[in-house]
Amino acid sequence: QVQLVESGGGLVQAGGSLRLSCAASGRIFSINAMGWYRQAPGKQRELVAVFTSGGSTNYADSVKGRFTISRDNAKNTVWLQMNSLKPEDTAVYYCYARIRVYSSSVGDYWGQGTQVTVSS
Fold first, then answer.
1. What is the mean pLDDT of the chain?
2. Cα–Cα distance, 100 to 89 (Å, whole number)
3. Is-contact 91 38, C-beta < 8 A?
4. Does residue 109 have a pLDDT over 90?
5. Which of 8, 16, 36 is nearest to 83 (CA)?
6. SS3 for 87?
7. Are 45 and 36 in contact, with CB atoms under 8 Å apart?
8. Cα–Cα distance for residue pair 42/34, rounded to 1 Å
9. C-alpha–C-alpha distance, residues 65 and 61, integer Å
10. Rounded distance, CA 96 to CA 7, Å?
11. Beta-carbon neighbour count of residue 74 at 10 Å?
């Protein structure tokens, strides 16, 4: 019923930039929250940046000042601008959204993930 499609990952040198995008589609009544998580090898999935249900943004301390999340509500799309990338930012980045689907309850949805690799 809902799809999250990500793009924009890749390989970049330390200090470089990448921009991720995620578009939600399907029988979407409303999006309560939307943003990005990441998972590095051998580690748990962690929050990177998210728009909350109240419209505010939350960032992981490790990315504050370097990453910026933005959105277009009309297009159900979020972006993650990642600057000053570090090798420790290397991970699979997942788009996340909490969505109310027509004629259904609220559910959590995930994208397929996009690899971000930062070389030193």
1. 96
2. 31
3. yes
4. yes
5. 16
6. helix
7. no
8. 25
9. 9
10. 13
11. 6
Instruction: Check residue 44 and give its pLDDT.
Output: 97
Q: Which H or E run contains 93?
A: strand 91-101
* CA 22 distance to own-chain centroid: 7
Distance, CA of 44 to CA of 47 (rounded, Å): 10
The answer to whether the beta carbons of residues 111 and 95 sit under 8 Å apart is: yes
Beta bridge partners of 117: 11
Helix, strand or coil, per DSSP, at residue 52? coil
The encoded tokens of residue 9 equal 């990952």
- Residue 74 carries which side chain, given as an amino acid letter? A
pLDDT beyond 90 at 15: yes
**What whole-number distance in Å separates Cα of residue 24 and Cα of residue 3?**
6
Asked if 18 contacts 116 with a C-beta cutoff of 8 angstroms, the reply is yes
113: tokens are 């993930």
